[in-house]
Amino acid sequence: MILANAFCLVLFVDEILRSLAGPPSPPGQDPHGWRVPVDCVRANELCAAEPSCSSRYRTLRQCLAGRDRNTMLANKECQAALEVLQESPLYDCRCKRGMKKELQCLQIYWSIHLGLTEGEEFYEASPYEPVTSRLSDIFRLASIFSGMDPATNSKSNHCLDAAKACNLNDNCKRLRSGYISTCSKISATEHCSRRKCHKALRQFFDRVPSEYTYRLLFCSCKDQACAERRRQTIVPSCSYEDKEKSNCLDLRNTCRTDHLCRSRLADFHTNCQATFQSLTSCPGDNYQACLGSYAGLIGFDMTPNYVDASTTSITISPWCSCKGSGNMEEECEKFLRDFTENPCLRNAIQAFGNGTDVNLSPKNPSPPVTLPPKTEESPALPDDINDSNTMYDTSIITTCTSVQEHGLKLNKSKEQSLCYSETQLTTDIMPDQKTFVDQKAGGSRHWAGRILPVVPILLLMLAL
Fold it and tell me: pTM for the full model?
């Protein structure tokens, strides 16, 4: 009888511990209740596996068909479907540029987010995952594959060197020859097919690595012949120019009727929108993200290009103007300036041509810090040290390296906070990927720790 009671008690305690540990997380969520970001194709599969989500998603797609947002939200069933889907993995899903099912992914994304926007947005959020790579990664790969850096010899024609480097790579050579052939005029009287030309250009820029395509698009030039070669990279007579320039807002509206073009334009605005809150005028000081978004626009109605062969200034524009904008002229000019007078885009192109990446240093650079004898207090670091994902002040690196080599202990100061491990620095590069602490799980472990010591006492009482 005593043994039976003891066995029941053990089972009871085990059930308590299991309940405190909490139930397993459902698909699409992490153990802390936060939705794990997934691509929209996968999010659609997760939604289809849940009857409530699947039915609401079908309802929303029917609501969006041929209706504007206000008409859709006037229907209570449509509004309820939208509210339910905001709690599903579909709401946070993103796509990868060039992924196998990119168009399907983008269609799923916009089927949700077109219902969330209030009217026609001037800037739309990018449906693509954030870019975490830097220009320095492109430079490293370019030097490995071609044996030279983008700006090795100041006297050479960098655009010609870029074409030679492309010809040494079978994939780059094949796809480049393909779009040049497709985009060239068939005869003096018969023009090329712009639709086929754009498709060939998209294939080239989506399938050829950036270390080749960037060198063709953003090569630095010292003479007009080089600058003209750069302008001719996309065969503008077919892919870019037309008899007349359309209105820029009309061109934007045409672009937004296509999921791919709309997504690439939103991505360009997200990554190249000039900001004066950063050293480079680029969001996150990431030149690579801006240049990638620019290249992603080539091959669509919004294809941008150099407006001339100038060697002293860089001016980029789509083939459009603000003529005939009426009372929308101010909005049109603002849209056009995001190309023609964009300091982020201009700085990014110049940085690539010069073979330089973002170099964030302290606002008031201090001389290198030398560690004093152990008996003295370590010198304090300046208050305006600029935290960077790419480069750190040499004085900080010297201090951290010396401390690690000599096994010294840092004072609890800003000096200590800057001596992180490589793993910690890598984690900090991706600010969107947050690490959350499960407070509930911590509480479960706390209660479990208090219950376990009581178990032997209860067993002893049963035995007596």
Answer: 0.68
